[in-house]
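Me: I hope this is not a bother. Any chance you could explain this protein sequence and its structure tokens? It all follows right here:
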Amino acid sequence: MKCIRYYILQNVNFQFRGLIAPVFTPFNNDESLNISIIPQYAKFLASKNINGILVNGTTGEGTSLSLDERKNVAETWVTAVKETKQHLMVQVGGAALKDVKELAAHAEKIGVDSILCLPELYFKPCNIEELTDYLYTVGASAPKTPLLYYHIPMLSSVNINMVKFLESVGEKVPTFCGIKFTSNDLAEGCQAAAANSRLEVFLGSDVLMSAGCTLGMDSFIMTSLNFIPEPALELLKFGKGDRDLKSARKNQEFISKIVKEVTQYGSWVETMKVAMNLTTNLSMGPPRAPLKVLTKENIETMAKGLTEAGLKVNKIPALKMS
């Protein structure tokens, strides 16, 4: 059904550019939330010069949380970033539309800086018009908060071309400010970034950051920022004009090496959460089912590989084992 457009742009100002860490959701070993660690988590990332936070995304297992849990996590981060002054983006999609609208309204009410939204994951939008109408409906629930679309076709199976979408969307969604582009189709990502100068494109690929910088992209959302932010910060300088190609290549190779080492043992969140536990003093706990906890042998092998790559590894955490 085509939406009736009834709300207008109200004080929406989205100026954030740079690096956003998609944060993990901390769990106890029984998979209950461990939100007490979030203030420390925010300070840790701020101390590493990470000024943007994405909550309840893929890395944060947002679609595995209940509505109340998602609100609880978002509220705790809102309180935490009041001290650290980080930009807070909250992902509200991946649920029934009624709940997505409720999450969007809640995000605006508690004062988040921006909203990110997955597409409908079952009754998927099949074309630009349907996606535009979906985002309009979500945006109407938070008419004062910048809205971005989460393009991740390998998981959502929504394969709408982002270049054509950004060229088409115009002012049809008044609060719409850009996309998170999580795809290895860098040509489409680069063209999307140039499609509409008003809109921002955040590249969501850890292993393509240097290529994105070379092509003029200036904003990135990458899981590795949680535990190895330093090479990405150097790459950001490269993208802003420090054209030391040899150094840029070295920094990208390091990120890619760590990602390859970590993810060989399981899926993205399963393995990255272990890497965070191994390389920082913050315990993120296990992933939530249906994701699996890695075997003790795989965790030990990962720890060895990360040590050989030059990272300081802590004592192997006592997680609930699969």
About this structure: The first strand starts at residue 19 and ends at 22. The CA atoms of residues 235 and 242 lie 9 Å apart. The chain has a mean pLDDT of 94. The chain is about 45% helix and 10% strand.
